[in-house]
Amino acid sequence: RLNNKGMGQFTHSRALPQGIYIIYLPNTKYFEFIVGEDQDFSIEADTADFIKSLAFKGSAENDLFIGFQRYMISLRKQADSVSALLKTAKDPAQKEALTAKMKEINETRIHRIEAIGKENPGLFVPVFLKATLDVTVPDPPRDDKGRIIDSTWQYYYYRKHYFDNFNVSDPRLLRTPIYEDRLMTYITRIIPQIPDTLYPQIDMLLRNARADSSIYRYMLITLFNHYGKSNIMGLDAVQVYLAEQYYLRDAWWSDAKFLADLKDRVEKTKPLLIGQKAPDVELMV
Length: 285
Hints:
54% helix, two-stranded antiparallel ribbon, mainly alpha
């Protein structure tokens, strides 16, 4: 609670899990800030304009974070201006110039993030900013006549390098707005929704998630629930796979009744999956 001067203090006997946190006020205004390794710092702000007024004392993480947010506001204004011109442009040469300008603005953002990473090793902000970057996919290989050798090369490159900028086993990223989107985009849109194709990818993700118990629990629950609600025919097999290989073995957070019910459900569902030999059916004469 704040006093009549708008001042308050939050203390805890243990360090908070690192990540992005929110201060949310009764008037529904809020702002984000970083909780990193050094958690002894102060925040000052004017509710009229958080981004403009936010000031931190004793937090290099948050100085960097708010500085980048202000930089992005400036860059976004440039991008919006160019985008508006691009929508009304009719001359091909003007369109080409404006498209090149948009590309330049995006490259400027990427270079800024890369520079922040080089200049601030050891901080969480560079890790988070890098995680927002998509993978750059090179041109596909061509033969001596300039023809593309493999039309699927770029897809498989992107799939292989999808997590190059995003460390799926970093628990700090779990406490950011981007973790779930990155995970679910990969498993539902990048990987074909075929059980035999999904299994090794799920194994890879959960193997990496074991580096931190909170990530492992989150990821297993998220994937289990997703495939339990899937409307795609045949993907009930994925939930059965997750139950047999992981949930029934490793879900220490679940109570005995839930696990017993799940085991019973798996035993009844498994013989009914696509591709399985159907149970004997007794016909009444």
